[in-house]
């Protein structure tokens, strides 16, 4: 007799055939008698324990987590395009900083020491420089979010 059949007997749901085999083994086998007494005491302890109530959506959560754990993981090749873009933006930011450092210290805003021509006059515009700085900050935050925060939270909140 296996464990399930013994617990079925203790629960009162065993078939007549199982009960007959159980009574026969109980009369003939002392090891089986000892095993049955141990299972009966365990069963009695389990009967005394209070039942825990599960959350209302326990099954749904469990099934969702199971489906996520069983879903195949798709590995994609990352593109080099963001790296190139960030490199170009870093070079542009460095150029803007160098242009700003080359300005003479005077009360007049953004005066170039030499005439660079009309093709780069827009670099003198304060709004343009502030716009470049803002764009660089936003791009840096975007990549920090994608390369640092997203992997961190995916690793720490992984199902399973």
Provide a descriptive summary of the structure in words.
- The chain is mainly alpha-helical.
- It has two domains: 3-52, no CATH class; 81-156, no CATH class.
- The protein has helices at 3-11, 16-28, 30-48, 58-70, 81-101, 126-156.
- The longest helix is centred in the last third of the chain and has 31 residues, at 126-156.
- The radius of gyration is 38 Å and the shape is rod-shaped.
The structure class reads mainly alpha
Q: Stretches where pLDDT falls below 50 for ≥5 residues?
A: none
Radius of gyration: 38 Å
Our count of helices gives 6
What order do the helices and strands come in, and which of them pair?
Elements: H1 3-11, H2 16-28, H3 30-48, H4 58-70, H5 81-101, H6 126-156
Kindly list the characteristics that best describe this protein.
2 domains, mainly alpha, 160 residues
């Amino acid at each position: 007799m296996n464990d399930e059949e013994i617990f079925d007997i203790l629960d009162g749901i065993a078939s007549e055939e199982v009960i007959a085999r159980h009574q026969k083994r109980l009369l003939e086998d002392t090891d089986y008698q000892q095993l049955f007494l141990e299972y009966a005491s365990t069963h009695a302890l389990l009967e005394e324990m209070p039942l825990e109530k599960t959350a209302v959506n326990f099954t749904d959560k469990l099934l969702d987590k199971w489906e996520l754990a069983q879903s195949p993981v798709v590995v994609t090749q990352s593109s080099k395009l963001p790296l190139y873009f960030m490199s170009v933006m870093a070079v542009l930011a460095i150029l803007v900083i160098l242009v700003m450092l080359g300005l003479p210290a005077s009360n007049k805003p953004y005066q170039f020491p030499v005439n660079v021509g009309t093709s780069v006059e827009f670099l003198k515009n304060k709004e343009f420089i502030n716009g470049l700085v803002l764009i660089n900050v936003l791009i840096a935050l975007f990549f920090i979010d994608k390369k640092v925060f997203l992997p961190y939270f995916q690793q720490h909140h992984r199902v399973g």
